[in-house]
UniProtKB/TrEMBL annotation:
Keyword Lyase among record annotations: no
Organism name: Pseudoalteromonas aurantia
Name of this protein: Glutamate-1-semialdehyde 2,1-aminomutase
Entries under InterPro entries matching the protein: 4pyrrol_synth_GluAld_NH2Trfase, Aminotrans_3, Aminotrans_3_PPA_site, PyrdxlP-dep_Trfase, PyrdxlP-dep_Trfase_major, PyrdxlP-dep_Trfase_small
Gene: hemL
Enzyme class, first EC level, given as a word: isomerase
Record PTM N6-(pyridoxal phosphate)lysine, positions in chain: 265
GO CC aspect terms: cytoplasm
């Protein structure tokens, strides 16, 4: 028995499923999750002292690699002054100013403590601002686990949502409409069906929770136009894409301005943080200036602000995002060539510092439907073969992969060589 296996069985007696967030349990790939003891640069180490080239990056925030010395230093310096005050600090202003500078569609921003809180609050705000109850989301997009957002499409497109978890009243879920990602016709049809009832569209501008699916040309602009036409709020959930796809997020990469943006993970440099912001006319609708209530004891936590500010400063380095994208591209091309050579049908997607690969005969994957039709059994075998090779991929076929500035060309080359050996065994 490995130490991870031992820890996992012990964990299961005190923690539901042995984990504090479901995807960590390896249900998507089978086997025992690795228990991590430390992480440095592009590497994570497990309790059995194995070292892995890590493409999970704490599910996104580690764009600068693990345990960056300058972020660590910023955290240690902040800790000297106490851990939390529940009162305003200058660091929160600095963070708000930095976010506004880097993401110009954000005129005002409110800090929260997770991505879930960011999207939940943005939805409440959009509903309060428009005085409409319905929201529109896309099948396969994940926006955290707030009740309104944990909803899947009903049978067939263009239907009212049904809860995707027990505990969510149907009366809540019925206000969540769900259509297919990258399908503008469905978006227009549902607005035609519910004119003046839809408060907002919430979208991952590059979908990262059904593997990695970038928007097709014109899709995001189409959403902008539909929202303008119907007086609905356009919300970009950039919890994953913010500061990763480009310094200004996917909205900069694709040059589309949303009304509200949700941010997360990255602006804490690895500490628990989220934020939502946008046009001040909308943002001034929240308490204490406006009527929509939103709050948080640990919001704007001084340690998280210190880590995040340093992370954003380092992420602002000239050319950093071009380099990140070059790494995603090299990885995708390497995987593609290795799969082609082994006769394994594969296709890849990438945008900035996020990427995905799909075991499929399809030439490209642009929809949730296609993502779910890929060869999931082959993915599972590939995942475990790569783990044996010392490469830690996301333990699910429906998650994007993440590169960091710390992944060297050598790391990428070694990963591709490992993939070549793994494909040969598939
Ligand atoms: N939105 C997106 C796009 C995400 O990927 C996630 C989490 O992965 C969330 C929201 C929820 O963030 P958190 O897990 O911090 O609540």
């Amino acid at each position: 028995m490995t130490i991870s296996q031992d820890l996992f069985s012990r964990a299961q007696t005190s923690i539901p499923g042995g984990v504090n967030s479901p995807v960590r349990a390896f249900n998507g790939v089978g086997g025992t999750p690795l228990f991590i003891t430390k992480a440095e640069g592009p590497f994570t180490y497990d309790a059995d002292n194995n070292c892995y080239i890590d493409y999970v990056g704490s599910w996104g925030p580690m764009i600068l690699g693990h345990n960056h010395p300058e972020i660590k230093q910023a955290v240690l310096a902040a800790v000297e002054n106490g851990l939390s005050y529940g009162a305003p600090t200058e660091a929160e202003i600095l963070m708000a100013e930095k976010v506004k500078e880097l993401v110009p569609s954000i005129e005002k921003v409110r800090m929260v403590s997770s991505g879930t809180e960011a999207t939940m609050s943005a939805i409440r705000l959009a509903r309060g601002y428009t005085n409409r109850d319905k929201i529109l989301k896309f099948e396969g997009c994940y926006h955290g686990h707030a009740d309104s957002l944990l909803v899947k499409a009903g049978s067939g497109a263009l239907t009212m949502g049904v809860p995707s978890s027990p505990g969510i009243p149907e009366d809540f879920a019925k206000h969540t409409l769900t259509v297919s990602f990258n399908n503008l016709d469905e978006v227009k049809a549902i607005f035609a069906q519910y004119p003046d009832e839809i408060s907002c569209i919430i979208v991952e501008p590059v979908a990262g929770n059904m593997n990695c699916i970038p928007p097709e040309p014109g899709f995001l602009q189409g959403l902008r136009d539909v929202c303008d036409e119907h007086g609905a709020v356009l919300i970009f959930d950039e919890v994953m894409t913010g500061f990763r796809v480009a310094l200004g997020g996917a909205q900069a990469y694709y040059d589309i301005q949303p009304d509200l943006t949700c941010l997360g993970k990255v602006i804490g440099g690895g500490m628990p943080v989220g934020a939502f912001g946008g046009k001040h006319a909308i943002m001034d609708y929240i308490a204490p200036v406006g009527p929509v209530y939103q709050a948080g004891t640990l919001s704007g936590n001084p340690i998280a602000m210190a880590a995040g500010l340093k992370a954003l400063e380092l992420l602002s380095a000239e050319g950093l995002h071009d380099e990140l994208e070059a790494k995603s591209k090299a990885l995708c091309e390497g995987f593609q060539q290795a799969a082609d050579a082994a006769g394994i049908p594969l296709t890849t997607n990438f945008a900035g510092g996020m990427y995905g690969f799909f075991f499929t005969d399809a030439e490209s994957v642009t929809s949730y439907q296609q993502a779910t039709e890929c060869d999931l059994e082959r993915f599972k075998r590939f995942f475990h073969l790569m783990l044996e090779e010392g490469v830690y991929l996301a333990p699910s076929a429906f998650e994007a992969g993440f590169v960091s500035t710390m992944h060297s060309n050598e790391d990428i080359k070694n990963t591709i060589a490992a993939a070549q050996r793994a494909f040969a065994k598939l």
